[in-house]
Amino acid sequence: MTDWFTEKQTEHVGVTMAIEETLHSEKTAFQQLDMVKTRQFGNMLLLDGMVMTTEKDEFVYHEMVTHVPLFTHPHPKHVLVVGGGDGGAIREVLKHPSVEKATLVEIDGKVIEYAKKYLPTIAGSLSDNRVEVKVDDGFAHIAHAKEAYDVIMVDSTEPVGPAVKLFERGFYEGIARALKPDGLFVAQTDNPWFQPELLAKVYTDIQEIFPITRVYTANIPTYPSGLWTFTIGSKQYDPTKVASTRFHTLETKYYTPALHMAAFALPKFVQDLLK
């Protein structure tokens, strides 16, 4: 017998995967957490019935949410990851030798606990001596930080449950205050097929706060529609104008300097959304 899990992506669309085994299931203080073993994608983390990450395709998201902003900033030393309790973004951040400290603020400590247990290839860098892990509210952490970070990454779930306020204009205003005078940030901003209004609103909010705002995409097969967007807000540095000399060799599976530039070439319908 094979069990099947379906993520209902809209009222009319779902993606179904074969499940070999449920490794852990728990209602935490914040959300329903399930860790399952799938036949196609290996171990998979689900939060409130939504796919967060899998062993097979996680590298796409984690490389693109980190390396694009970190190569855009010429000297990123202090980096904050809001959310991202699976540890994948932290793992990629630490590949940059200029980073002196990486702070992870995850509201649900259970995500960190079970990622370490069942996703060790993703969470293995959380014990690095350059990393500070805080189980705390990322919104509150941002509100109390002043010019503390060079780069901030918002590695959140979709805008449901505790992540709703991470998609609000007030949060982006707080990020601007938490960044240094030449700082920048990136947020995952869902997909343009099923969440076009969300992408357009977030882009508008960020554009009204930051002088440089750019959207880029990546292909992530286990995320709704497979076409995923990220939005950068920058005080000074343009991610589409990074000098070729700034790139250095990293061990990656998806990200390349050429792809860094190409990712900002948006389909026409996405360009139209952002007008």
Automatic annotation (TrEMBL):
Coiled-coil blocks: none
Active site annotation, chain numbering: 155 (proton acceptor)
EC number: 2.5.1.16
One Gene Ontology biological process: spermidine biosynthetic process
Source taxon at top rank: Bacteria
Leader peptide range in chain numbering: none
Residues covered by the PABS domain: 2-235
InterPro entries: PABS, PABS_CS, SAM-dependent_MTases_sf, Spermi_synthase, Spermidine_synt_N, Spermidine_synt_N_sf
Residues at which spermidine binds: 62, 86, 155-158
Catalytic activity line of the entry: S-adenosyl 3-(methylsulfanyl)propylamine + putrescine = S-methyl-5'-thioadenosine + spermidine + H(+)
Assigned keywords, A-Z: Cytoplasm, Polyamine biosynthesis, Spermidine biosynthesis, Transferase
Protein purpose: Catalyzes the irreversible transfer of a propylamine group from the amino donor S-adenosylmethioninamine (decarboxy-AdoMet) to putrescine (1,4-diaminobutane) to yield spermidine.
Protein family: Belongs to the spermidine/spermine synthase family.
PANTHER family documented for this protein: SPERMIDINE SYNTHASE, SPERMIDINE/SPERMINE SYNTHASE
Protein name (database record): Polyamine aminopropyltransferase
